[in-house]
Amino acid sequence: KHKFWETQPVGQYKDLGDSSLPEGPIELPTPLQEVKQEPYNLPSQYVWTTCDMTSEETCNEVYNLLKNNYVEDDENMFRFNYSKEFLRWALHPPGYFQSWHIGVRAKANKKLVAFITGIPARLRVRNEVVKMAEVNFLCVHKKLRSKRLAPVLIKEVTRRVHLENIWQAAYTAGVIIPTPITTCQYWHRSLNPKKLIDVGFSRLGARMTMSRTIKLYKLPDSTSTPGFRKMELRDVPAVTRLLREYLSQFAVAPDLDEDDVEHWMLPTKNVVDTFLVESPDTHEITDICSFYTLPSTILGNQNYSILKAAYSYYNVSTKTPLLQLMNDALIVAKQMDYDVFNALDVMQNESFLKELKFGPGDGQLHYYLYNYRLREALRPSELGLVLL
Ligand code: YNC
Ligand code: MG
Fold it and tell me: How far apart (Å, rounded) are the C-alpha atoms in residues 329 and 314?
């Protein structure tokens, strides 16, 4: 059934629930000299290319490949439209390897036709911190689908990860392959219900009029928590401490240091936004909320071409109730003109989704580990990881 994935060191269906198998790496590292030194073979019309995402031209090519060929919803109404600034941010964390930004070009016209990336990360799985690659942006041009190019891309990124002496990876996908560590659901909070209904993202509820719907999703003009403000560079140490402490409760979560927090959390225009609560009396940082910006192209609508979406990232509440904190996040997202605020049911998100009028989406997001077995699947609330 899974001719490729059956050959890979991932949890296999036949081993599900076998409690005699140990948790941890499935295969041991091999000596680096034994890692294949040449790239995998591509069909003869194609060549490998390493993508320098600091080059405006290359970044544009990647942007356009993804804009036209990356992930769509089940009904093909929307397609992710990651911005160039976002791609540069997502692919340049501390310690990144350019060799993990992998493209495939057609020999005939040099056009970029496929892509896959890895970035380095430390992930904690229960009590172990493991160096991993986070693999993302796997994309094959629509005209080259179902030719088994994807397994070649995956094997090539694996080889280049191994060359850096890293042997595990984490990734998410909308498809089910062997075997998810957990399966999450997206929830959506309408900020601009009229547009969302006009473009077919949502539907008018039963016995609802447009004006009742607009009133239902109306938010206050300003935030309610005293001391709520944007994160700044000087907040990095406090945000790192809060986030590390918060993430320690989850079975799987990133192990973040101050450099990581500066990269991943410090506000970057149209890419990532982080707000925090600074106590007006003690000036202590007590709470954090953050979201990233990922618009989608609206396919075939006369009136609108872009859906502006915010995606919940990492949120920490120690003093401000999480519900109030996230309500303030919705208020600032509305002020910033987002159409919808999305969140997965990971971490403690379930505690605010229904109350803050998020509705469940269709389509699920499955989380995976490569070469690392868990004894059993996690509940989404045991996962402290958001991938882009
Ligand atoms: C997928 N999303 O099952 P089997 S997510 C992993 N992730 O293999 P072909 C996938 N595997 O089942 P196509 C996958 N989608 O026979 C398909 N597969 O064993 C598997 N879509 O290959 C599939 N981006 O080339 C099957 O399929 C085999 O031409 C079939 O290409 C697939 O970035 C794809 O959704 C996804 O561009 C490239 O459909 C194409 O259809 C496409 O015949 C739109 O492939 C965009 C899209 C995926 C977004 C993502 C995470 C990717 C993770 C990859 C796995 C990483 C493993 C860790 C590596 C480092 C290890 C270390 C150390
Ligand atoms: Mg293919």
Answer: 12
